Amino acid sequence: MKHTISILCDDTPGVMTRISGLFSRRGFNIESLTVGHTEVAGKSRFTIVVKGDDNVLEQVRKQLQKQIHVLKVRDIKHDLTVEREHALIKLKVNDIQRGEILQIITAVQARIIDSTDGTWILEITGNSMHIDNAFNLFRNYKILESIRTGKIALERGEAGSIT
């Protein structure tokens, strides 16, 4: 089962190493890890996606909460969150394919953010399934490079807020 873990913590050196270490020591493979600053200076929020057993994950959650710089840990449920992922795709574009690619760009609500020497860099934002679908539609074209951010998520309502 996939779990999305949201961790609110102090923004201090070494905190990411300690947090990711807890998952690896318990045998969890982190599928995605994103971290960024929050609305409060000196605080960061991690979003970690892992597959694993509920009972073992509960133990990891309890150990995370014992960490000195960790303020809140939540295993957030998919139906109670707003989640997004961001991707950049660099495509080789020739004159013959240009029209087809533009149709796909429109269908997946992507944006062309750079066009240089017959290559386009596309920007796509959406949930994980939306990004997967976009990659599937572009797989028949020459993808030169790509990168995905991994999931970021916030719980709906006031849950998880700092104050």
Would you write up a description of this structure?
With 163 residues, the protein is an alpha+beta fold. Helices cover 28% and strands 43% of the residues. The protein has four helices and nine strands; from the N terminus they run βαββαββαββαββ. Strands 5, 6, 7, 8 and 9 form a five-stranded antiparallel sheet that branches. The two termini are 31 Å apart.
Integer count of domains? 2
**Fraction of residues in helix:** 25-40%
Q: Given the C-alpha coordinates, what overall shape results?
A: elongated
Spans with pLDDT under 50 lasting ≥5 residues?
A: none
Task: Give the CA-CA distance, first to last residue.
Answer: 31 Å
List keywords for this structure.
alpha+beta, Alpha-Beta Plaits, 2 domains, five-stranded antiparallel β-sheet, four-stranded antiparallel β-sheet, 9 strands
Topology:
Layout lengths: L1 E9 L4 H11 L4 E8 L5 E9 L2 H13 L3 E7 L4 E12 L5 H10 L3 E6 L2 E8 L1 H11 L3 E7 L3 E4 L8
Antiparallel strand pairs: 1-3, 1-4, 2-3, 5-7, 5-8, 5-9, 6-7
